[in-house]
Amino acid sequence: MTELTTTERLALYGGGLLLLLGTVGIGLLEIVAGAPHPVSGDGQIVHEALVPITVRSYIILLGLVFWGAYATLSVARSPPTDTSV
Amino acid sequence: MATNIQTRLLGQDVSFPVKESKLAYWLVVLRLIVGWWFLHAGLDKFLAWPFDASWFVGGAAAQTSLGPVLTLFSDGVLLSFTNIMVPLGQTLIGLGLIVGALTRLAAFFGAFLMVFFYFVNGETGGWAHGVVTGDLLGLLIFAMIATLGAGRVLGIDAYLAKTTVVQNHPRLRYFIG
């Protein structure tokens, strides 16, 4: 059985949490408490967002930075002990 | 035949069976399709040479959150570097995924490139189709390919992993599938 180490947990849970917050979390909030999102003739959603879309994109970017940092640190740290994966 | 995955996630015991045959099949299909996506994008640029990325790094990206970083690459030596590295990188990432060689390294750089495409395309388009776009999904598929080391399935990485060089330098496992 494999388990995540504390560092892995911090990076992967942190990054995943931010990504999920930016996409699903705020997305749900917009649906429940936000302004209606009428669809324009081109099929585009007219945004009148509760949480500014830029803030939302920064949250997602931060989550991706966590993941990128995790990948980079994994390589910089000690070599893998289990070489079967 | 199925393998029982057993682990702990969010403090909970997690256990579920995975059919190896379907997982292996799926990893190869994903790798080939995503690989062709990037190989095609790279070769297209070489076939229509010269490629000029200034419209992206200097134009489209200028008003976005990544603008301060990307506009540094919009002229001079750094633009020449970008003009070569984008098509070369896309071609090598695509080739790596298709033949399953240095798969994790290729997928990491694929995801790295997708971060720029995701934010610049998203922000210049005003996120008109929401924050979950094709670019973000592409990025997530690269992350999945890297996590699962898809190059080990019908890929060159399966042979690379058995070489003495890799066995003597286990850190290289981070780069191959």
Number of strands of chain B: 2
Largest two-chain interface: A-B, 28 and 33 residues
> How far is the first residue's CA from the last residue's CA of chain B?
23 Å
| Proportion of strand residues of chain B | 5-15%
Largest sheet of chain B: 2 strands, antiparallel
Shape of chain A: elongated
Please count the helical segments of chain A: 2
End-to-end distance of chain A: 13 Å
Mean pLDDT of chain A: 82
Give the SSE order of chain B as H and E letters: EEHHHHHHHH
Q: Helix fraction of chain A? A: 55-70%
Would you count the extended β strands of chain A for me? 0
Q: What is the H/E order of chain A?
A: HH
State the assembly state of the protein chains: heterodimer
**Tally of individual helices of chain B:** 8
Q: Segments of chain A where pLDDT lies below 50 for 5+ residues?
A: none
Specify Rg of chain B, calculated over alpha carbons. Answer: 19 Å
